[in-house]
Inverse folding.
């Protein structure tokens, strides 16, 4: 038993190391025959180690992200299960800030709805209900997520994308709005790049209603023992398929909610 466990552990560590190196060097990995096939539990263990490495290098966890919460995203990537990843301040870009394309492998952008929680939530607490999560929401905003799979060709299966922290690379959020002041169930969403509309959709594409992601946040977070400290951001998911991020201005407009902005730049400093 001990041998089996340590062999699994070695596989998790190997995947974590390769993905960490790929992200830091902006060089994609190509999983070949020697690439360990991880179970989903092992993949989340690799993700946790990957995030831990970032924290040990001085980053702070600032939130979580849900992935594959829309048909468009599932169809685009050929995966039909929701996943969760971790956001750090190293990924956070101020609204209107810059993202250095030179630090990324092959980034894509997607329009998101973002939640902000106003009090500490221990998702592992068995007494916690979805209503508690909803009651703890203190802001909702338009968001932009930059995803950047560390795998060559953006090609992965479910455990691989989970291990890769769900391709999380950068994100920004627009102005926070009181969640009680806006109905977010069916708002038009537009993603524009360099002044041209690149994708259009609706917040209804996010599981029918962005708030429908909360039970998944709770169940995935409970399974993984995650917590959501006060002030955490949660990206609920993309309203459209992702499109390549090139140099230029990116604007996400969520009608009746607000806008989020970032600029892709070739080289130079990333605003933080
Ligand atoms: O919806 C998501 O944010 C999932 C991102 C992971 C899959 C991808 O790289 O497209
Ligand atoms: Mg996303």
């Amino acid at each position: 038993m001990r041998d089996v466990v340590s062999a699994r552990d070695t596989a998790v560590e190997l995947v974590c190391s390769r993905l960490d190196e790929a992200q830091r060097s902006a060089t994609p990995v190509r999983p070949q025959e020697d690439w360990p096939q991880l179970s989903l539990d092992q993949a989340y263990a690799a993700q946790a180690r990957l995030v831990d490495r970032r924290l040990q290098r001085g980053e702070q966890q600032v939130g979580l992200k849900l992935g594959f919460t829309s048909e468009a995203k599932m169809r685009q990537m050929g995966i039909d299960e929701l996943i969760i990843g971790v956001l750090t301040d190293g990924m956070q870009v101020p609204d209107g800030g810059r993202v250095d394309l030179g630090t990324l492998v092959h980034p894509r952008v997607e329009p998101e709805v973002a939640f902000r929680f106003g009090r500490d939530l221990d998702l592992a607490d068995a007494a916690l209900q979805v209503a508690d999560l909803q009651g703890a929401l203190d802001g909702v905003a338009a968001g932009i997520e930059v995803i950047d799979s560390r795998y060559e060709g953006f090609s992965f299966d479910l455990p691989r994308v989970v291990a890769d922290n769900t391709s999380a690379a950068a994100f920004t959020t627009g102005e926070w709005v009181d969640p009680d002041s806006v109905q977010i169930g069916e708002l038009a969403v537009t993603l524009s790049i360099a002044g041209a509309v690149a994708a259009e959709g609706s917040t209804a594409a996010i599981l029918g209603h962005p708030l429908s992601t909360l039970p998944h946040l709770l169940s995935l977070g409970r399974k993984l023992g995650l917590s959501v400290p006060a002030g955490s951001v949660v990206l609920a998911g993309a309203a459209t398929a992702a499109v390549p991020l090139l140099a230029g201005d990116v604007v996400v407009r969520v009608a009746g909610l607000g806008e989020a902005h970032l600029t892709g730049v070739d080289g130079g400093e990333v605003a933080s």
The CA atoms of residues 29 and 202 lie 34 Å apart.
